[in-house]
Design a protein that fits this description.
- Helices cover 0% and strands 50% of the residues.
- It is built from no helices and eleven strands.
- The protein starts with a strand and ends with a strand.
Length: 121
């Protein structure tokens, strides 16, 4: 059993920053990949960033150089630091996790409920 709980979404002005957190509660399951996907209005869900148990990271092209993913293994938590936010970053951000590397392909088995991020002046 895996439960993912996101927090940290909200309204921010263009150029601002925001940090999302996702705490994984697991019972008898060890997670490998964790990360974030997002879905904007009228858009398909896309990979934002992923990080493996070994610390390998991957970012979607639209966020490279602006977003940073990190992970606290003791707290079973993954973070997404978002800097220089743009209106096109407006979306629901979903935490995603997998026992293997599925998250890196947007196919992780476990999903959070999502948290809204709105970038607007």
């Amino acid at each position: 059993q895996v439960t993912l709980m996101e927090s940290g979404g909200g309204l921010v002005r263009p150029g601002g920053s925001l940090t999302l957190s996702c705490v994984a509660s697991t019972t008898g399951i060890e997670l490998n990949a964790m990360g974030w996907l997002r879905q904007g209005p009228g858009d398909q869900r896309e990979l934002v960033a992923a990080i493996s148990k070994g610390g390998v990271t991957h970012y979607g092209d639209p966020v490279k150089g602006r977003f940073t993913i990190s992970r606290d293994y003791l707290k079973n938590t993954v973070y997404l630091r978002m800097d220089n936010l743009k209106p096109e970053d407006t979306a629901v951000y979903f935490c995603n996790a997998d026992k293997e590397m599925g998250t890196f392909y947007g196919l992780g088995q476990y999903w959070g409920q999502g948290t809204q991020v709105t970038v607007s002046s």
